[in-house]
Amino acid sequence: MNAHIPFSTADFALAMRQRQWAESARQFVRCRRVIDETHDVRTFVFSTASGHMFSFSAGQYLILHLTIDGATVTRSYSVSSPPTRPLDLQITVKRVKGGLVSNWLHDNLRPGHDIEIEGPVGRFNFDDLPCEKPLFLSGGSGITPVMSMLRALTDRASGHDIRFIHCARTADDIAFRAELEALAARFSNVNVSFICSQEGSVWQGPKGRIDGPMLLRLAPDLHQRTSYVCGPEPFMQTVRTCVAEIGIAPSQYHEESFGGNSMPLQSAVAGVTRVRFARSGAEHLCAPEETLLDAARNCGLHIPTACQQGICGTCRTVKLSGEVAMDDLGGLSLEEKAAGYVLACCSRPQGTVCLDL
After folding, report:
1. How far apart are CA 299 and CA 280, in angstroms?
2. How large is the average pLDDT for residues 275-285?
3. Distance between CA 95 and CA 321 in Å, rounded?
4. pTM for this model (two decimals)
5. φ and ψ at 152, to 5 degrees?
6. What is the pLDDT of residue 264?
7. What is the spatial distance between Cα 170 and Cα 196, in angstroms, rounded to a whole number?
């Protein structure tokens, strides 16, 4: 009989590291399950063929690389699952009228299908922006990154004092409603509220659009909390105005911009930078230090890139208007600069910039 060989904690940790997925690299994952969350929202569950574990921070996003009707398309989607469940990775996608990628995912992605992803990436995450009293505030499909944060905290039975406020059109549009109510019932440190903007007499909770008084009613200790905010741009603009008028310190406010980056309050309400894409009609509100390449990716637009250091010139694109701060390390010739080219990987908008894309 073989003698029992003890398996130490260090051995287990080493084994787990060896099984971890190589994050950030472009690679294929397999869809294992599709879950209907609401009438127009679905969660897609992915795993690796090798069984490797995913490693990421709660709140980060994926970049999907898809081929639709023969064209290469990229889109960014926040991860809705928590890093405390590392054997799968989930994104939750709302079907959007006329939305190329969201409709394709709903209509075509099924268990057994493989897709190429990049990431997870993003500065809007709870590891980089921790606090003891978080307010997770979301609108519509913006619930996904803050849901990842809440799930991670409750999976660890964290003692954080948590408030979660979600805004939807109607009760039928609230994704994860049953799970959120169950978490609030199970954990005494978790308080969950829903606001419905278009609900009739059936809905007994808060009604209308969020404003300062409603926000303070649902989170009366707002000044002691750090807010993590995500949602459609009109919702974000409303929240920025509310928290600025209430007098929330910039260090206590973080928002995700189109599934991408954390934006502090002082940049959210003043000195805003934007990138407009002339041919596609897309527009991106930029976080501090975000590049033109980041902006394009967050709008689902593809700019070829290689070195991402301002050297190779692969990402050069034409700037139609506006000013950028560019860390060019030789990627552009004098003639290209004179013609209006900039390097997307190392150019940061100063104010509003328009690109020929």
Report:
1. 10
2. 88
3. 33
4. 0.73
5. -65, -45
6. 59
7. 5
